[in-house]
Amino acid sequence: MAASTDVLGTARLLVDINLASITDVVAINPVLAAFDSKADRHSLLGIARLLLQRCPPAWIGAAIVDGRLAPEFIPDSDLEALSWVGPDLEPLLVEIHHRLTRAAFDERRKMLGNAGELAIMSALRYERYSPVHVALLSDWYGYDIENRRASATERLEVKACVRATADRVFVSRNEFDKAAKFGSEWRLIQVIFSSSVMVERTIIAPHVE
Known about the structure:
By secondary structure, this protein is of the alpha+beta class. The chain folds into two domains: 55 residues, no CATH class; 100 residues, Trna Endonuclease, Chain: A, domain 1 (3-Layer(aba) Sandwich). It contains seven helices and seven strands; from the N terminus they run H-E-E-H-H-H-E-E-H-H-E-E-H-E. The chain has a three-stranded mixed β-sheet with strand order 5-6-7. Strands 1-2 form a two-stranded antiparallel sheet. The chain has a two-stranded antiparallel sheet with strand order 3-4. Strand 5 and strand 6 form a beta hairpin.
């Protein structure tokens, strides 16, 4: 209720985190507007979840340890401001932490996949082939790299991983269908990186195991 008196500051925050926009009129993002019908606890928790996801506090990474809340890592002023959440605070913050780290993990996994494809492209070029990185064009192909040899065309699906996940490979329906269609031309290649790549800014040749 105290925050509601700072109308200008609240408006600026909502615009900054894309929950509102200002053109000829003020428009509220539908994900926020969904909570405007009733000021009950469910709605308030929904708004809190939305605000914490869009504008996560700097301490949230340190405050969740092994899936549990460690309130000693939350500044007293923030802990007091969140006290109204009561027993729902821990599951709320754990959920938000999971969403944030999952997004970062998915981005890192995509980068790892790209690195695997580039490693194979580099190896083929080293062998004086002229591969085409078709994954950059479309997912429709059902493989990542097309390499023409004298005898046949190789259609290479590249799966990158670290040692801990080297025992499993996930193949999409499209990849499976294209494997069936192209037979021996379609090949799956696994590139195993050292686990240190998960914290490195740049992946280089020695990281390939």
